[in-house]
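Quick sanity check, Cytochrome ubiquinol oxidase subunit I:
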Amino acid sequence: MFEHFDALVLARIQFAFTVSFHFIFPSFSIGLASYLAVLEGLWLKTGKSIYLDLFKYWIKIFAIAFAMGVVSGIVMSYQFGTNWAVFSDKTGPVVGPLMAYEVLTAFFLEAGFLGVMLFGMNKVGKGLHFAATCMVALGTLISATWILSVNSWMQTPAGFELGANGQFLPGPSWWAIVFNPSFPIRLMHTVTASYLTVAFVVGGVGAWHLLRDRMNPHARKMFSMAMWMATVVAPVQIFLGDTHGLNTLEHQPQKVMAMEGHFQSHPDGAPLILFGIPNSEEKRVDYAIEIPKASSLILKHDPDAPLAGLDTIPDDEEPPVGIVFWSFRIMVGIGFAMLGLGLWSLTARVRGRLYDWPLLYRAALVMAPSGFVAVIAGWITTEVGRQPYVVYNLLRTADAASPLDAPAVAASLLAFVVVYFAVFGAGVWYILHLMHKPPHAGEYGVKRGDTGPIRTAGITPGPSQNPGDPETMPRDHEEAIDGR
């Protein structure tokens, strides 16, 4: 039934579907790991049990999100070897080592300390447990560093040599590959987006519970911390986004042309098109609402500066303008909405009414998933804006795909759709179920089963046979161990 479909289009749809699912979880776990480290650090510094309660509340959610991120990421390697074997062959000498460094540094670091972080609160010292939490948070950041270095190299390739067989080979210095022109600002922009994503999820959960019980101290603390993050980091993210845009204009000008909807060149200053309907056939934006010369002012800091349009490049090198145009506006619009909510919360805080404005809680609840939408929109802008190339200006996407028939790609695509919505849908439902419960004093963290791990020999001692195990102690004993 799929024999008349285009195998390349199906392979691109499959990769877009799986990477979009995957990207949601790392963008959440990167920020949440750092938030957990902050909570535990505040508990150790102040001795206030509210921080420990919030730590145990969110660590359960982190464990599930982290696991789903790892599982969904495995599929990416599968597709490199099946649907994109030519890409793997040509870029393997550069991309392969960078991906291996991610496993050898970040993944091993996370795996080494994750068990201590999740299950070791009552089994190791407070300092060692806090160190494990910090190592997991550091591991997520190192992982993001390597992955974004790979992606940035595909956007702005540098430090390579072309071999006789067409392979991309490392040049004299790996530093030129790792620190390619777009990598530093892309890393800062993406990691900051992860922090904002978590801030608005935490703020939304806090707002949900404040709407139900305005006096809940744990919900108040969550909401206050999240709104501080939004207030401080949202303007920083807008600044980083502007800097990233200038970097993109320098190294990937046709991507910016598509983002701005500039089909035609503007020698005397380009307008900023706020909204409209890109018409690629007629090479114009229909029903455009624009601000004269504002685009030149933003991109060149001169309202009369000339800006080239898509009319300066061949038609077969144009990215899909409609997708890039709208995904960029969704990302920017959400960014300014985040800034607005942060300033609104600051106003309420200054007036001493942070916990007295239900309308603010409702706005925060609506904005809770906004970070996920923004990071996906930004990812679409980045990846679709690079088309028709997979390695910018050097390797076309059409030349990187495996020689597969459409039915073969379609079969795996359908399988991914069914499995992803079933498995990850259940995981997301359970995360929402955990968030629905209000945090409270004496919060439980991640626990193993009541009978402990399964043993391969002998019998498994029950709770009564293992009275010294903190996992089977009465609640008052566990609180004593926690220092409360």
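Posting the structure with no commentary besides this: The first strand starts at residue 160 and ends at 162.
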